[in-house]
């Protein structure tokens, strides 16, 4: 039964990702990295990811791009005095929505990291301190951190407001706490799910593993939301 549910939710995730990707192609995001982040969100938020994208992230159609761009620029000038260190502008969304989108930004890096690290850990049997599970967690964290910093660095540079060195420092400040919170949530769920549902083995070649990872990413997202809220309210990063 778990295998059936695993395939159902994995396919829903793929379909949600594809639908968002198609729509994003027609309606490019003002911030280029979100063209990748929103479809990735659909992978671990089946159906819900489409609702979140529609409500919080959907941009104007491409043929209206100049008009939409002008609108964003106006909004940016309106809030120049509050420009963040990570180069993001304030949005006109309610704060909870802006923080939600910031959390998806973190989630995109973590998800890509796990998509890369999990098959590698399974294929190599990599272990840390004699534990394959610990080896998986270590590889996942390193890959997620690399992608997470990249996902922060690129928008900062895109805004043209920081030198490469300053942009990297600001990306580390903006993403480290939220990414650690995301990873803690994932690890806690996997520590519970692996013995209960996966027979004690983290095998990236099974649909059950990726279903548990889907849930782990949702738990990680929930864990990262308070961290993103704190970072936003401390002025370290801004709601997107």
Descriptive report:
The chain has one domain (2-233). Residues 65-90 have low confidence and may be disordered. Helix content is 74%, strand content 0%. It has helices spanning 2-26, 34-44, 48-56, 65-78, 95-124, 132-158, 164-197, 207-233. With 240 residues, the chain is mostly helical. Helix 6 packs antiparallel against helix 7.
Task: Itemize the secondary structure elements and their pairings.
Elements: H1 2-26, H2 34-44, H3 48-56, H4 65-78, H5 95-124, H6 132-158, H7 164-197, H8 207-233
Protein name: DUF4396 domain-containing protein
InterPro entries: DUF4396
Region (Disordered): 64-92
Question: What's this, in brief?
Answer:
The protein is mainly α and 240 residues long.
Number of helices: 8
Distance between the termini: 40 Å
Secondary-structure element sequence? HHHHHHHH
Structural class: mainly alpha
Average pLDDT for all residues:
85
Assign an overall shape. globular
| Biggest β-sheet strands, sense, barrel | none
Rg calculated over all Cα atoms: 18 Å
Which regions contain 5 or more consecutive residues with pLDDT less than 50?
65-90
Q: Tell me the helix content.
A: over 70%
Count of separate structural domains? 1
Give the oligomer, counting copies of the same chain as homo and different chains as hetero.
single chain
Report the β-strand fraction as a percent range: under 5%
Number of strands: 0
Pfam family, one: DUF4396
Keywords: Membrane, Transmembrane, Transmembrane helix
Biased composition (Basic and acidic residues): 70-86
Domain DUF4396: 96-237
